[in-house]
Design a protein that fits this description.
Blueprint (H helix, E strand, L loop, with lengths): L1 H18 L9 E8 L5 H8 L2 E6 L2 E10 L5 H16 L8 E6 L32 H14 L25 H5 L8 E6 L19 E2 L16 H10 L15 E6 L7 H8 L8 E4 L15 H13 L7 E5 L21 E7 L17 E4 L7 E4 L6 E5 L2 H18 L5 H11 L11 E2 L5 E2 L10 H10 L6 E5 L3 E6 L6 E8 L1 H6 L2 E15 L5 E6 L5 E5 L11 E8 L9 E9 L7 E14 L18 H8 L87 E5 L1 H14 L23 H5 L71
This protein binds 2-acetamido-2-deoxy-beta-D-glucopyranose (3 copies).
Length: 845
């Protein structure tokens, strides 16, 4: 055993040098990640703490991994605590003072591999009953022409309706004319972050990119499928990059390179996931991720801080500073009322979230809705699925589906784009996708027309990807200026949320001065971080209404979510407001629609507007996220004067524009003054937000209060600043809003926005409720649990052996894939339950 592991260490040691990923042994060792002051040598920290320095944490500067033999305690935390006490009493200095952050690594709890299967929709037919319409003669002719012209002789190309659909004409990714221009993904690289990929498949090996690949589960350079159900990554890879040859079909970018990053097949730590998300990020351009927290309609989980840092690092430093492109599947929990804003990966501004439509262009029942979803593309539903490559030398799979299959298809299309425009940044790609998506199903999609004349639906995002349109636009796309941002201060509410159809609405006014100070020209993403205490989380919903009266359903009710945790510093994201100026009143409306014993309090919120900068030269990069980023609201209360609020009872007003007066109507009034002498120059200050000194009311009827946010302490200096117009109005809003909603969303929501204001003394109790809201916070937040979301759940795992010594106990390690045995015959099309249409399966995406 000992010798064996020693040999293993030597072998892996070699690979580790090549790849910078040292081997891990979670059975015998503990691992710590320490963020050190750049002047603090990790070697000395190691000596001081009795640890072994394992090297830098992937691509994260000043973050290091240390190991030691397994112990119950968090020995680093203990040592740091002692050190702090000593420092307080003696005031001396010590090498340990250079430790900025320390985290003992835990194997993440393995969440359900396959959740309960959502019921198929009414009218669902099994594939056996299915009776597709026949292909159109013109469609067949076109398909034959394309195959001929491009020399495509892949045997299942004619089944790959997502590439060219001769039956439901027009329901495909519209890629054939892109290929005919010779744009086939050459020079582009996609990494499939998943359960590995079969680099020995004859359909993949020609495009396999070893330099970008790593197996984080088995600590080897080759991310081969090793478990019986390690097939998901291979199927995803085939969609992107299956070679044009005589095996199966072709990928949408069939000349692109495809890498595998295997993380889903065993428990891993946040540290390893952080390394994986940055793996070979100068070479891998796109990371396709068809996984996330469970789609069970009750989870609300975000990646841990190290993973968040890795993602920011990727967009800032990956691809030589142009930024890695993350593509995430929106999730398959729609039938359980799950929503992609409850998933911290899909609602990250750094990921392009992709939902699914089926071969008839319909919304499949599994594909999640949310305001963070940018776009959709084809996957399973209407009795068919995606036909792609499978594990094995020459194996195909006709049943790949769920949003799992949509994300890689999108990633492949983005590879076509990067093949001709490798200079596009991560944000350029989002602009391109947003601008060229094709709205579909206009009758049922609850479409809103946005400020820049685009259409957005929470079901379809900006629509379906049209590869041709995207590539055409890419040819002449002009890079956007760097990212800028504006953070509002924390807005304290501390009001009970009325039950029923009433809502509690709170507004904040953003002035042109604030955005000018923040160097923000026009919006891209909007995020709202909020705290709501509630006895039953699933009863809550949250809407955000922009100055242009566009509505983001940030949160929706979820019948299965009976958590008592409420929202704890949870960040919701919206892409609905793309292109708006951001100037004017932003309103958050929290509702508790169920009249029951579960009540709640809206504690506070914080608005962040992300967008393109005005002056590129002035713009700095966003500082790395920090685990204390959301801690400052407690401080703002103590560091500001009271947020004196006034509200006013008002009966329904006919013209919505008279309710909320946009400050742009009064461009010359003195809105804000720059604070003087407020910052004792904490250069890390990420915001360029303006600090208000004086503001005046924007309208004659609206009683205004303009709180002065004073100088904040150094820990949150970056948030200081920004004037607030806070209006709390509730009640009447409810019924009216509700009834108006349907119509409003179908039509132009901006024309019909109406609500009432009633009196509430919101100045009262500003400081109450904060505690209780925050109680229970902490352990809940670290989540980011990685789990897989595999396609096609076979029921064949019962015989799997357990691997001992791994927390969670359900680690499956049935070896199916040894070098000499590729399991031929296990993957024959149509011979087992794997071939069921997977969109009736549970938690795969
Ligand atoms: C598809 O591509 C063609 C060019 O081949 C283009 O004319 C058309 O507008 C695109 N979109 C659709 C929906 O066909
Ligand atoms: C691929 O990239 C290389 C190096 O950047 C470049 O010289 C070549 O022209 C590219 N090929 C295509 C087809 O874009
Ligand atoms: C629910 O209502 C009770 C009674 O008004 C109150 O004491 C409690 O704080 C409320 N709960 C929340 C989470 O706001």
């Amino acid at each position: 055993m000992r010798l064996h592991s020693l040999l293993g260490l030597i072998g892996l040691g070699y690979l580790a040098t090549a790849s910078n990923v040292p081997p891990r042994n979670y059975e015998s060792h503990d691992y710590y990640v320490l963020h050190l002051d750049s002047s603090t040598p990790p070697s000395q920290i190691a000596i001081k703490l009795g640890l072994t320095h394992e090297g830098q944490l992937g691509e994260l500067q000043d973050h290091h991994i240390f190991s030691c033999h397994k112990e119950e305690d968090d020995i680093v935390r203990t040592a740091l605590k002692e050190r702090r006490q000593k420092k307080r009493s003696t005031g001396d200095s010590d090498i340990l003072d250079g430790v900025k952050f320390a985290q003992k690594q835990k194997l993440k709890a393995r969440l359900e591999k396959r959740g309960p299967i959502p019921p198929p929709p009414k009218g669902y037919q099994s594939p056996v009953e299915q009776r597709q319409e026949g292909p159109a003669p013109s469609g067949l002719a076109r398909q034959a022409f394309v195959a001929d012209s491009l020399g495509i002789s892949d045997p299942i190309f004619h089944e790959q309706w997502h590439l060219y659909n001769p039956v439901q004409m027009g329901h495909d990714v519209n890629v054939t004319d892109v290929w005919l221009q010779g744009i086939t993904g050459f020079n582009a690289t996609v990494a499939i972050v998943d359960d590995g990929l079969d680099m020995y498949s004859d359909d993949l090996k020609g495009n396999y990119f070893a330099e970008g690949s790593w197996d984080f589960n088995d600590n080897t350079a080759e991310p081969k499928p090793r478990l019986s159900d390690d097939r998901h990554g291979t199927r995803c890879a085939g969609e992107v990059s299956a070679v044009k040859n005589d095996v199966c079909g072709v990928g949408v970018a069939y000349d692109s390179k495809i890498a595998g990053i295997r993380i889903l097949s065993k428990l891993i730590t946040d540290a390893d996931e952080a390394i994986a998300m940055n793996y070979a990020f100068q070479l891998n351009q796109i990371y396709s991720c068809s996984w996330g927290p469970p789609d069970d309609g009750l989870s609300m989980e975000a990646p841990g801080i190290l993973i968040k840092k890795a993602m920011v690092n990727a967009v800032q430093n990956g691809r030589d500073g142009k930024g890695s492109i993350y593509v995430f599947a929106s999730g398959n929990g729609a039938a359980k009322e799950d929503n992609c804003n409850f998933d911290g990966y899909t609602n990250s501004i750094y990921s392009i979230t992709v939902g699914a439509i089926d071969r008839k262009g319909l919304h499949p029942y599994y594909s999640e809705h949310c305001s963070a979803q940018l776009v959709v593309t084809y996957s399973s539903g209407s009795n068919d699925a995606i036909h792609t490559t499978d594990v094995g030398t020459n194996q195909c799979y006709p049943g790949h589906g769920g949003t799992s299959a949509a994300a890689p298809l999108a990633a492949g299309i983005f590879a076509l784009v990067l093949g001709i425009r490798p200079d596009l940044t991560w944000r350029d790609m989002q602009y391109l996708v947003m601008q060229t998506a094709l709205p579909i199903d206009l009758d049922t999609g609850e479409w809103q027309t946005t400020s820049i004349g685009k259409k957005f639906s929470h079901t379809f995002g900006y629509g379906k990807i049209d590869s041709w349109a995207t590539v055409e636009a890419a040819k002449t796309f002009e890079n956007v200026k760097p990212q800028a941002w504006y953070y509002s201060p924390w807005i304290h509410v501390n009001q009970a949320i009325p039950q029923g159809n009433e809502g509690l609405a709170v507004s904040f006014e953003v002035t042109s001065t604030m955005l000018k100070e923040a160097n923000v020209e026009r919006l891209e993403h909007v995020t709202v971080t909020m705290n709501v205490a509630h006895g039953r989380r699933g009863d809550l919903s949250v809407d955000l209404v922009s100055p242009d009266k566009l509505v983001s359903h940030l949160s929706v009710t979820r019948k299965f979510d009976s958590s008592k945790d409420g929202y704890n510093d949870w960040t919701f994201m919206s892409v609905v407001h793309w292109g708006e100026s951001g100037i004017g009143t932003w309103t958050v409306i929290v509702k508790d629609t169920e009249v029951n014993e579960h009540n709640g309090t809206f504690v506070d919120w914080h608005l962040k507007l992300w967008g393109e900068s005005i002056d590129a030269d002035k713009q700095t990069l966003l500082p790395m996220p920090d685990e204390h980023d959301d801690d400052d609201h407690d401080k703002i209360i103590t560091s500001t004067t009271t947020i004196a609020g006034t509200t006013q009872a008002i009966t329904p007003l006919p013209a919505p524009t008279s309710i909320i007066t946009n400050p742009t109507d009064h461009p010359d009034r003195p809105v804000n003054a720059k604070p003087t002498g407020t910052t004792e120059d904490e250069t890390a200050s990420p915001t360029n937000s303006a600090a208000p000194e004086a503001t005046t009311s924007a309208s004659s009827w609206l009683p205004s209060f303009f709180p002065t946010f004073g100088v904040s302490s150094k820990t949150q200096i970056w948030i200081y600043g920004a004037a607030g117009l806070i209006i709390v109005f509730c009640a009447g809003l409810g019924v009216y809003f509700y009834m108006a909603r349907r119509k409003r969303l179908r039509n132009n929501p901006r024309d019909e926005w109406e609500f009432d204001l009633i009196e509430e003394d919101e100045a009262e109790g500003l400081n109450t409720g904060r505690r209780s809201a925050k109680a229970g916070k902490g352990s809940k937040r670290r989540a980011g649990e990685l789990y897989d979301a595999f396609a096609a759940g076979s029921e064949d795992e019962s015989e799997d052996e357990y691997v001992d010594g791994v927390e969670g106990g359900d680690e499956r390690e049935k070896r199916l894939y040894d070098d000499d045995d590729e399991g031929e015959g296990q993957h024959v099309i149509g011979d087992d339950e794997d071939d069921e249409i997977p969109d009736e399966k549970g938690s795969q995406r």
